Amino acid sequence: MPDTPAAPVSALTPADLPRCAELEAQLFAGDSPWPLAGFVAELRADHNRYFAARAGDGTLVGYAGVSVLGPVDDRECEVHTIAVDPTHQGRGHGRALLDALLAVADRENAAVYLEVRTDNAPAIALYERTGFTVAGTRRNYYQPSGADAYTMVRPAGESAKEDHP
Q: What region holds the N-acetyltransferase domain (predicted)?
């Protein structure tokens, strides 16, 4: 449990994108980090929802995005990214960002899918606490490192079953 609660998340804005690209390059240097243009395209897509976590001074310390796919009566969601500045990890920002993504899915009554590195134990534990289970393994998913990923899924309607420590 973090010693200080994370601030509420808000919508990611175009002004946030250079900081997202900076964090992305730092966090995912070995696995093809998204460039600024990638973030611009993601934020513009109507089917995507992106959120920001900020420090007390307003500095962007994390971001997350999810896509809402499929027909209105049969939606599914795919987590595109969740990232938190290493100097702000362990303070609840990742959980707050994930909760924002899951709220989008819950409003759509949608299952949620994501990929996570098989060696990212803290993220896997967070996902499991919020109703995700491993559905399979994608070998060499992350490039160029060749790291494997678990595909995880949270069925629609799981919000009432989540563990909120």
A: 7-157
